[in-house]
Design goal:
Oligomer: single chain
Helix content: 10-25%
Number of domains: 4
Strand content: 15-25%
Low-confidence stretches: 1-49, 178-186
Structural class: alpha+beta
Order of helices and strands: HEEEHEEHEEHEEHEEHEEEEEHEEEHHEH
Number of helices: 10
Shape: elongated
Mean pLDDT: 81
Strand order of the largest sheet: 1-3-2
Largest sheet: 3 strands, antiparallel
Radius of gyration: 32 Å
Distance between the termini: 35 Å
Length: about 500
């Protein structure tokens, strides 16, 4: 229930840089350099070709007919095995199962005298068409657009979307002299110096990615494409992918979340509930003007007054209002929380105490705001034991409804502003005092440390511990496991 958020600024940085004519020749792996012999910049779907035969032998030697060689790369096609390649080309090609190297057909049929055609890649960035049989391209083939490239190619940006470094894609050009240019020039539609995304199409189309497993408004991006310092703020999709909100993908990280009224009307921002820290506080965050799949996260922690990071997300320039905090209550041991931020099933657990009655606030002790609630156990009074037989209770703040007026209770081992409330009443019904909002430390069919009343959410632990408090005060042993069959009607295997 604690309204505390520490969201880092998450942005998928997809930089843009044109492939200049100087980049396209002479700087790649060793081989003849200079003007293309017809292969460069002539893209167009599956229709671009390698042009006329080169006037020299390239880094792969004389041109060969790819169809006379063993095929490779069955997932994409358009590549065959050659016996050897220059050492500085080995990093760009994969190995064939029966020896040799898997080389794209365009390089085989020209002997390597080939400059990949230019295209428009992620976020409108300049790129070139490279075969998906190139291992580094294959790793991110599902993310890269095809644009004007052949069916087995993808448009690789000249700048890495991970760390803004040169990918070398625009330098893979080979020609027979040094008098001309290869791959051409493609200007980016987005100005990288601004925090506004200018392109008419998404930087990354979410539809090309798998949806996040929990069904939130996000899709799964390869974790290698997310900066490590941002990865911890995202949920895992499994299989090496992270769940990224769709608007972050579409805008290339360049977005300013909508301003909204969060807890108690405090300034906030609309953030995706795909973000784990937002999802964890979903029960107490208002929606206000936010879109579907978003909740209004306060700019400042309403309890502590510290920045949550919600208003420094991506291109946000920060909150317009100063930090505000909710009033104290319960003798300084609680905070006045808006009633709508309290889960409905706990609405009757908290009262107004000293909170302003005109503001629809209730007093929630800090023990319930600092994370999953785990009760501090105590020994009820002698009278409680005589009347109910209960010898286990939990310390509850006297500012909570019904605690101070509870009959036959005393302070026991609890603090001065607390009383020891038994776990069950005279009729054997749970009082709720001993139930936790934390998950069980282990399964009910596994022996181990003590479990806490209510940790399973289904009543089994509570039922066992009502009969045998030892299971919730000392250890969950083999006897507790045997009692699961008796009180939970579901014997352990």
């Amino acid at each position: 229930m604690k309204p505390s958020f520490t969201l880092a600024a998450i942005a998928i940085a997809v930089a843009a840089m044109a492939c200049s004519s100087a980049d396209s020749v002479g700087d790649g792996p060793s081989g003849p350099s200079g003007a293309s012999s017809g292969a460069g910049g002539d893209g167009g779907g599956d229709n671009h070709s390698t042009g006329s035969a080169p006037s020299c032998d390239g880094p792969l030697g004389a041109p060969q007919d790819p169809s006379a060689l063993p095929a490779c790369c069955p997932d994409f096609g358009g590549a065959h095995c050659v016996g050897d390649v220059p050492a500085d080309l080995e990093a760009y090609v994969g190995a064939c199962d029966d020896g040799g190297y898997c080389v794209p057909d365009e390089f085989i049929q020209t002997g390597g005298v080939y400059t990949p055609p230019s295209c428009t890649s992620l976020q409108g960035a300049a790129g070139v068409c490279l075969s998906a049989c190139v291992p580094k391209v294959a790793e991110v083939a599902g993310l890269l657009p095809q644009d004007t490239c052949k069916s087995y190619e993808r448009c690789v940006p000249s700048i890495s979307p991970l760390d803004n470094t040169d990918t070398g894609a625009c330098k893979l050009g080979f020609s027979c002299d040094d008098t001309g240019a290869g791959g051409g020039t493609t200007e980016s539609c987005d100005d990288p110096s601004t925090c506004v995304y200018d392109c008419p199409t998404p930087a990354i189309d979410p539809a090309t990615l798998a949806p996040c497993p929990d069904g939130c408004g996000g899709h799964c991006l390869d974790e290698k494409l997310v900066p490590p310092e941002q990865a911890s703020q995202l949920a895992s999709c499994g299989s090496g992918a992270l769940c990224v909100p769709d608007d972050v993908l579409e805008m290339g990280g360049k977005l300013i979340p909508k301003t909204c009224a969060s807890i108690a009307g405090f300034e906030g921002r609309c953030l995706s509930d795909c973000l784990p820290e937002v999802a964890a506080q979903a029960a107490m965050l208002p929606k206000d003007v936010c879109a579907a799949g978003e909740l209004c996260v306060p700019c400042y922690d309403p309890v502590e007054g510290t920045a949550t990071g919600a208003c420094s997300f991506s291109c946000d320039t920060g909150p317009a209002e100063p930090a505000q905090t909710l009033p104290d209550c319960c003798g300084g041991e609680g905070t006045c929380v808006p009633t709508q931020s309290v889960p409905p099933e706990h609405a009757d657990d908290f009262g107004a105490d000293t909170c302003p009655t005109s503001s629809a606030l209730v007093c929630v002790p800090h023990a319930f705001l600092s994370g999953p609630y785990v009760p501090a156990l105590c020994t009820p009074s002698t009278l409680i034991y005589l009347f109910t037989g209960q010898d286990v209770g939990a310390c509850m703040k006297t500012c909570m409804p019904g605690v101070a007026s509870a009959p036959y209770v005393d302070q026991g081992e609890c603090a001065g502003d607390e009383l020891c409330i038994p776990c069950f009443d005279q009729q054997g019904a749970p009082t709720g005092a001993c139930e936790t909002t934390a998950a069980c430390a282990h399964d009910t069919c596994t022996d181990g440390g003590q479990l806490t009343w209510g940790c399973d959410g289904g009543g089994c632990v509570t039922a066992v511990c009502e009969s045998d408090p030892y299971c919730c005060t000392d250890a969950w042993d083999s006897q507790c496991i045997d009692e699961v069959a008796t009180y939970c009607y579901a014997p352990c295997p």
